[in-house]
């Protein structure tokens, strides 16, 4: 089974291939199944990329929490 970053890279490559006009693209899903996307299912592929972005923590919409230093006094 591929890790999250690998699946995300594959999904983004598949989306790119479909968007530039390649007729069929296949992606291996996290559960090991293959899924084939055709140009008519670009929306489904975009949704999958967003889901992977959220799962991997790379989504631009994921808020980044900045924490300050921990100080110990004593």
What is the count of structural domains? 1
Which fold name corresponds to the CATH topology? Head-to-tail joining protein W, gpW
By CATH, the architecture is named: 2-Layer Sandwich
Percentage of residues in strands: 5-15%
Global structural class? alpha+beta
* Major sheet description: 2 strands, antiparallel
The counted number of beta strands is 2
Radius of gyration: 17 Å
Helix content: 40-55%
Could you name the ranges where pLDDT drops below 50 across 5 or more consecutive residues? none
Order of helices and strands: HEEH
**Average pLDDT figure:** 77
Reading off the top of the CATH hierarchy, the class is best stated as Alpha Beta
Describe this structure in words.
The chain is of the alpha+beta class and 74 residues long. It has a single domain (4-56), classed as 2-Layer Sandwich (Head-to-tail joining protein W, gpW), CATH 3.30.1580.10. It has two helices and two strands. Strands 1-2 form a two-stranded antiparallel ribbon. α1 (4-19) runs antiparallel to α2. The longest helix has 16 residues, at 4-19. The termini are far apart. The relative contact order is 0.17. The mean pLDDT is 77.
